[in-house]
Amino acid sequence: MPIEAEIKARVRRPEAVREAMRGRAAAEILVYTDAYYDAPGHPLTTAGSELRIRTVTTPTADRGHDPNPPTTPSSRAYRADTTTTASSRTILTYKAPSVHEATGSKPESETEVADPEALDAILRGLGYEQVISYEKHCVNWSYTTSGRRLLATLVTIPDLDGTFLEIETLTDDLEDLPAALAVVRAEMLDLGVEEHDFTTELYTEAVARSRTG
Question: Which residue positions in the chain have pLDDT lower than 70?
Answer without folding.
Answer: 61-86
